[in-house]
Write a structure and sequence with these properties.
Rossmann fold, 13 strands, 7-stranded mixed β-sheet, 3 domains, 13% strand, 22 helices
C-alpha cells in the first residue's frame, strides 16, 4: 500500500487482518513509539482463543514532530481520516481497528474516531468537519488506547519540569503573539481551553451520551438537549487511558470521561489504568536495562491488557471511579437549567452569588436550577486591553463550560455577563461552535456593536438575548468604544451605543432585545435594583418594560459627545505621561544602581549614596514605581 507510515504484517499473512493506528506525541516520531508498535503486533497476532491475525500498523510521521510546526490540529485529523479511508478501501477485510496515541497523538486519535463516526444529532462542529458523514470503518473501531493523553489540554504551572516549562512557554508566547494564524504552533491547539480541545471534549460528551441506552444514564426522552439524546445504534469502542503515576503534564481527573459512564457497573466502556513509576515520556517505553527493566516490562503488560482484555478483566486493573469522588463531582441528572453569572473587569464578582439567589428564588423547583458563578479573579483595565490576556480568560471560561455540561447532562444553559463577562460569552459563541445558551443577558457590554446575534439565533445557539445599556457608562464609552474603530481589537461599545441588530434601525426580532437606559455608570446593569429584572429574564425570558424603575430616557450628553472623540489616544498619551516622572526622578539612578561600575545591577548600600538628595531620589522613585504598579494592576 502507498500510504506513508503503513506496514503490512509479515506474520500470519493469510490470517484475518487487524489494523492498528498509532499516533506519536509532540516532538516525537514513529521510531520513538517503536515499543508500542512491537507490543501491538505481539499482543494482537493471536487472541485468547488461539486465532491468528495479521496485524497491520499505520504509524505516520505527523507535522508536529517539529516543535514549531504550524499545521492546524483539525487539518491533521482530517488527513489521518482520509489516510485510513484509503487503507480500508484497499483492504476491506479488516475485522477490527484499534486507535492508539501518545500525548498529543492521543488527543488526535480520539478526535479521529469522532470525526469518522459522524457528528451526533444537534452537535455543532467546526467548519472543517461540518460536511463529514459517518465512515463505515468507524464501526470496526473496537477500542481506543490513550497513553498519557492531554484530556483537558496543557497549561503552564510551577509543577512542570524546566524542559516542558520552557518549551510550552515559548509555544504559548508564539501562539498568543503571532501576527498571523498561520504562524501559530500546532501544540497551541492542545492547550487548556483552546477551541480544538473544548470542541473535542464536547464532541465526546455528545457522542457517548447518544450511545447510552434509555434508562442508562441520560434516558431517551425529549427533556434532554438535542445533542445528548440517544440516536440509532452507534459504534461504541472501549476507551482505555493509561497514565503515569509521575506524569507532571497530565491530570487523571477529566470529568468528560468519568462523567459519562465511569461509575456505571454494567456495560462499562471507559477505564483509567495507571503506570507505576512512570512519567510523561516513559509511558511509551516498554524496554529498559537494570532497575528500569522490571518497570518497563510491567508497563508493557498493562498496555497489552489494554489491547486485549475484556471489560470484566479491564475493570480488575483499572482505577475505581468511586474512589475519585473527592476530585470529581458525579453528574446530576435532576438539574434542568443552569445559569452562568460571570463578572467583569475591576470586580471580584461577589454580586454574582446575589443574582444566583434571586434566580433560584424565582424558580418553581429551585433544586432543578443551578447557578455557576466561578471567578477568574480581579482583572484590571490595562491588562484587559491585551488580546492574549483576554483570550486566556475565554479559554478559562470554556473549560468551565465543559465542566458544567459534563456535570449537568440534562440542563439547558443561560448566561449573565457584565463587562469582560460579556466578552467571554461573545467570543465563546464565536470561536466554539458547540457552545450554546438559552437566555443571554449582557450589561456593560464591551463587545462590538456589529456583533452578529441574528445568525446565532437562527442557528439555535441562542434562544433569546437582552442587552442592557447604561446612561453614563464612562468605562465603555472611553475605552472599548474607542477601540472599536481598530479592526485588530475585538472590543466595542455595545454597552454604551447598543448592538446594531437590536437598534431602532434594525428590523425588530422577538429574540433580540435591548433596554436603554438603566440609570448609572458601568455597574448600573447589575446593581441591586436590577437583580429582580435579571432573574425574570433568566427564568422566564421577560424583558424589563421601557418605563421600568431605574431606567431613564437619555444618556449623559457630555459623555456621549466625548465618546465620539479619539479618547483612547488621549488615554494612551496619559499613560505614557506617567512614565515621564520616572525618567526625571531617576536621572541619576543609573549611577545608584552601579551601572557605571564593574558590579552591574547591584543596589548600593546607603553609605555609598553621596548626598541626601540621592537618598530622596531613591525613596521617591520606589514610591512612584509602587504607585504606578498599583495603577496598572487596579485601574
Amino acid at each position: 500500500m502507498s500510504v506513508k507510515g503503513f506496514m503490512r504484517g509479515t506474520e500470519n499473512a493469510d490470517a484475518p487482518p487487524v489494523l492498528v493506528v498509532i499516533l506519536h506525541g509532540w516532538r516525537s516520531s514513529p521510531e520513538k513509539v517503536g515499543d508500542v508498535v512491537r507490543a501491538s503486533r505481539e499482543a494482537l497476532g493471536r487472541d485468547d482463543g488461539g486465532r491468528r491475525h495479521r496485524v497491520d500498523t499505520y504509524v505516520p510521521l505527523l507535522p508536529y514532530h517539529r516543535a514549531l510546526s504550524t499545521k492546524r490540529a483539525v487539518d491533521i485529523v482530517r488527513e489521518i481520516v482520509r489516510a485510513i479511508d484509503g487503507l480500508v478501501a484497499e483492504e476491506p477485510a479488516y475485522e477490527r481497528i484499534i486507535l492508539a496515541g501518545h500525548s498529543m497523538g492521543a488527543t488526535i486519535a480520539r478526535r479521529v474516531f469522532l470525526v469518522a463516526a459522524g457528528n451526533p444529532h444537534g452537535f455543532r462542529t467546526e467548519d472543517h468537519f461540518r460536511d463529514e458523514r459517518p465512515h463505515a470503518w468507524a464501526a470496526k473501531v473496537e477500542r481506543i488506547v490513550l497513553l498519557a493523553a492531554f484530556n483537558r489540554g496543557w497549561q503552564i504551572s510551577p509543577r512542570l519540569s524546566w524542559k516542558y516549562s520552557i518549551g510550552l512557554n515559548i509555544c504559548g508566547l508564539l501562539g498568543h503573539l503571532a501576527p498571523k494564524r498561520g504562524w501559530v504552533p500546532t501544540i497551541f491547539d492542545i492547550r487548556l481551553g483552546a477551541p480544538f480541545m473544548v470542541q473535542t471534549r464536547l464532541h465526546w460528551l455528545a457522542y457517548r451520551r447518544q450511545c447510552l441506552p434509555a434508562g442508562a444514564g441520560n434516558g431517551n426522552d425529549a427533556s434532554l438537549p438535542a445533542a445528548n439524546r440517544p440516536a440509532a445504534t452507534l459504534p461504541e469502542p472501549i476507551l482505555i487511558q493509561l497514565i503515569g503515576s509521575r506524569d507532571d503534564l497530565i491530570s487523571p481527573f477529566d470529568q468528560v470521561d468519568i462523567a459519562v459512564d465511569g461509575n456505571s457497573s454494567g456495560n462499562r466502556t471507559y477505564f483509567l489504568i495507571q503506570f507505576n513509576e512512570t512519567d510523561h515520556m516513559s509511558a511509551i517505553h516498554f524496554t529498559g536495562s537494570g532497575s528500569e527493566a522490571a518497570v518497563a516490562s510491567a508497563r508493557k503488560q498493562r498496555f497489552v491488557h489494554a489491547l486485549t482484555d475484556t471489560r470484566e478483566d479491564l475493570a480488575k486493573i483499572a482505577s475505581d471511579p468511586d474512589l475519585l469522588i473527592d476530585e470529581i463531582d458525579k453528574p446530576d441528572e435532576t438539574v434542568e437549567q443552569t445559569v452562568f453569572v460571570i463578572h467583569g473587569i475591576r470586580d471580584d464578582g461577589f454580586w454574582t452569588h446575589r443574582v444566583a439567589e434571586k434566580v433560584r428564588a424565582l424558580t418553581r423547583r429551585p433544586t432543578a436550577f443551578r447557578a455557576w458563578t466561578p471567578t477568574y479573579g480581579y482583572f484590571a483595565m490595562l491588562p484587559f486591553i491585551l488580546p492574549w490576556i483576554r483570550r486566556q480568560k475565554v479559554e478559562w471560561f470554556m473549560d468551565q463550560y465543559v465542566g458544567a455540561v459534563a456535570q449537568y447532562p440534562r440542563s439547558k444553559f443561560h448566561y449573565v455577563g457584565h463587562s469582560n463577562g460579556t466578552y467571554l460569552a461573545a467570543r465563546g459563541l464565536q470561536d466554539y461552535p458547540a457552545c450554546v445558551f438559552d437566555h443571554v443577558l449582557f450589561a456593560g457590554s464591551v463587545v462590538r456593536c456589529s456583533y452578529d446575534w441574528l445568525s446565532l439565533v437562527e442557528n439555535r445557539r441562542v434562544a433569546r438575548m437582552l442587552n442592557v445599556v447604561a446612561s453614563a457608562d464612562w468605562v465603555v464609552a472611553l475605552l472599548p468604544k474607542s477601540l472599536e474603530r481598530f479592526k485588530k481589537f475585538d472590543l466595542g461599545g455595545a454597552g454604551f451605543d447598543g448592538f446594531d441588530q437590536a437598534g431602532p434601525q434594525a428590523p425588530p426580532h422577538p429574540a433580540i432585545a435591548q433596554r436603554e437606559f438603566v440609570q448609572g455608570s458601568h455597574g448600573a446593569g447589575i446593581a441591586e435594583g436590577q437583580w429582580e429584572n435579571i432573574a425574570r429574564f433568566v427564568v422566564h425570558g421577560h424583558v424589563p418594560a421601557d418605563n421600568a424603575p431605574g431606567f431613564v430616557r437619555l444618556q449623559t450628553r457630555w459623555l456621549k459627545a466625548l465618546s465620539s472623540t479619539r479618547a483612547v489616544l488621549w488615554a494612551g498619551a496619559a499613560i505614557a505621561g506617567l512614565l515621564v516622572p520616572a525618567a526625571i526622578i531617576s536621572s541619576r539612578f543609573d549611577e545608584l544602581l552601579c551601572l557605571s561600575r564593574s558590579e552591574r545591577f547591584c543596589l548600593p548600600p546607603l553609605a555609598s549614596l553621596t548626598s541626601h538628595e540621592d537618598v530622596v531620589r531613591v525613596i521617591v522613585l520606589v514610591l512612584y514605581l509602587l504607585a504606578l504598579k498599583f495603577f496598572i494592576t487596579r485601574f
